[in-house]
Amino acid sequence: MEFQINYAVFTDIFPVPKAVVEDNIHLASPLSLKALLLMLCAGSAVPSVSTLAATLKREEAEVEDALLFWVERGVLLKSCGEQPKPAAPSIKAAAQPAAVEPAAAPVQTQPAAETKKVVAELPLSRPTHEEIAARVAECEEFRELFAEAQLKLGKTIGYEGQSLLIMLHDTYDLPLEVILMLLEYAKSRGKTGYKSIASLGREWSEKEIDSLEAAEDYIASRHTSDALWEEFRSQTGVKNRNPTAKQRRFLESWSKELGMSVQMILLAYEICIDNTGKLSLEYMDKVLRSWHEKNITTPQGAEAEKQQWAKQKFGEKKKTAPQKGSVFSSDASYDLDAFRQSAIGLRDYVPKT
Fold this sequence. Notes:
By secondary structure, this protein is mainly α. The protein folds into 3 domains: 7-88; 129-210, Arc Repressor Mutant, subunit A; 244-342, no CATH class. It is built from 15 helices and no strands. The two termini are 49 Å apart. Mean pLDDT is 77; it is low at 80-107 and 326-353.
């Protein structure tokens, strides 16, 4: 069966940059493409993330994460005041990627994504059968790598799998023992497709995970953030099963950098909902960092600070009854009123709309 374009429908069209198709069509997720097409179709009346999420019937955090892909590729800008950057180079010209100079980081509360280095996607051209045979002949470790990879993935790897493993080593500079750990981690997450493995290999290369110790730290950090997200999701009813890249950065920052427990994260969520009526990671980050600065690490500590503030502000006052339905109702009341704005340093904070 062959197909032709029906030019009769071309009465109302909008432009799409060639870079979107030529350089990124094979990299972008379906959600990223749908969100971008909606933005391009809207023209100058750029829809908000909430509007896009409602149209696509997805969570706002998922849509925002999908749009960040186009920001990284130079197709979208994060704000009207941000200067455009050149679009990411195509695969054809990415054999020797140009050095990327780090830009000055703006003042922000959101934990920044790691950008130690940027590496290109794996080249489209793969090593030939003869080149693979030559590599195995000159280095017995590659033969062992192929055999171990089959055991870890639970399937036979042919030419495609062998060429991928060689490119992970040659292009991304991953040691063979790190590649094996990468495969084991991919199997534990049910992501054994070669595209997923290549994407994970690129991430490890960018994060400079080039030793067993670094790989173990990465995996431990991911398991921690996954467990935190599962608990957070079960208590709050957030729909997406796995955290987005942005949500994971916040979780890891709160857990590792601030040392906050899941109870404190949930408490910050309750305060966020009370004040904004919706989930705002930036708002929660403001609350948790305020507690961290005051060395408050328990719900009881947060309640004691609230009572102390109320005593200084209004004098002695009878304790309020705990809110029903709160996951912390047995310990404290979070009917914060004015305290919510002053005691946690949010008097001048205006949540995003």
